[in-house]
């Protein structure tokens, strides 16, 4: 990895893997990274949605490909990383965004539900880190951004299992930054606040009341858009953040200020 900053875009000449890329923040990230000059490998479980976003990027003249993968399965994550290296020659950056939500008081969450969210939100990030680091070390460096949440360092009622997983993502991020800094690999996290994605919006497109209450308490008085998270990730992945590692950057309109 070089610290020379390209005038062509934040991520010009870089190869970046995006998980959870079939919609929401992941799809927005793929679009933003491509616009910033990156070759983008999109990964998610839905082939139909992946094809749609990938075709859109290719139609705009960007280098993009996709691989169907479930991050809760280590072999599938390894296949996604290998596909990126095979397609683009190396892995310079990764945006570990795939996750699932969960609501309900702690004693209302079944063991099966708990195991599933741990598999996706914690083991999934662990699998991604393991395989991405494997690809980046021989190349001499890289940058990884994990997606946590403002729920990763604060509490709120009814989301205990989800918040526990997002706390874990921050622990993984900090440890990975320490372990891999000597190899030239930076690892950071984003902590989005309320972002208007399909996971947040109701089926009719309305913003739920708890989200409206959070927006009302946000200094900027607005919910975030997926693209705003993606732009923050692009900076962290870029060489302009070359001395930034182990941090968690809130993208929350000032809600946690």
How many structural domains are formed by the residues?
A: 1
Name of the CATH class: Alpha Beta
Q: How many E strands?
A: 7
Q: What is the N-to-C succession of helices and strands? A: EHEHEHEHEHEHHE
Shape: globular
Class by helix and strand content? alpha/beta
Mean model confidence by pLDDT: 92
Weakly predicted, low-confidence segments: none
Q: Record the strand order, biggest sheet.
A: 3-2-1-4-5-6-7
Distance between the termini: 34 Å
The main β sheet shows up as: 7 strands, parallel
- Let me know the CATH homologous superfamily: NAD(P)-binding Rossmann-like Domain
Portion of residues in helices? 40-55%
Rg over alpha carbons: 17 Å
- What's the architecture in CATH terms? 3-Layer(aba) Sandwich
Q: Indicate the proportion of strand residues.
A: 5-15%
Pfam families: adh_short_C2
Domain Ketoreductase: 14-193
GO molecular function, one term: oxidoreductase activity
Family: Belongs to the short-chain dehydrogenases/reductases (SDR) family.
Secondary structure layout plus pairing:
Layout: E1 15-19, H1 24-35, E2 39-44, H2 47-59, E3 64-68, H3 74-88, E4 93-96, H4 111-136, E5 142-147, H5 160-180, E6 185-192, H6 209-216, H7 226-237, E7 248-251
Parallel strand pairs: 1-2, 1-4, 2-3, 4-5, 5-6, 6-7
Family: Belongs to the short-chain dehydrogenases/reductases (SDR) family.
Keywords: NAD, Oxidoreductase
InterPro entries: KR_dom (IPR057326), NAD(P)-bd_dom_sf (IPR036291), SDR_fam (IPR002347)
């Amino acid at each position: 990895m070089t610290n020379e900053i390209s005038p062509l875009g934040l991520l010009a000449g870089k190869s970046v893997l995006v998980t959870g890329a079939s919609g929401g923040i992941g799809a927005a990230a793929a679009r933003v990274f491509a616009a910033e000059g990156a070759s983008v490998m999109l990964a998610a479980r839905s082939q139909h949605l992946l094809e749609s976003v990938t075709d859109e990027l290719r139609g705009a003249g960007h280098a993009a490909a996709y691989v169907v993968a479930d991050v809760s399965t280590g072999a599938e994550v390894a296949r996604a990383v290998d596909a990126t290296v095979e397609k683009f020659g190396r892995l310079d950056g990764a945006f570990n965004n795939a996750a699932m939500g969960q609501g309900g008081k702690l004693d209302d969450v079944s063991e099966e539900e708990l195991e599933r969210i741990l598999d996706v939100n914690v083991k999934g990030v662990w699998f991604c880190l393991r395989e991405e680091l494997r690809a980046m070390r021989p190349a001499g460096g890289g940058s990884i951004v994990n997606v946590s949440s403002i729920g990763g360092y604060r509490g709120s009622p009814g989301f205990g299992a989800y918040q526990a997983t997002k706390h874990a993502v921050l622990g993984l991020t900090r440890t990975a930054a320490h372990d891999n800094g000597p190899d030239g690999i930076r690892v950071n996290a984003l902590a989005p606040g309320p972002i208007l994605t399909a996971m947040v919006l109701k089926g009719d497109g309305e913003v739920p009341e708890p989200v409206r209450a959070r927006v009302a308490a946000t200094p900027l008085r607005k919910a975030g858009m997926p693209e705003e998270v993606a732009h923050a990730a692009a900076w962290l992945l870029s060489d302009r953040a070359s001395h930034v590692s182990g941090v968690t950057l809130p993208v929350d309109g000032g809600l946690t200020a």
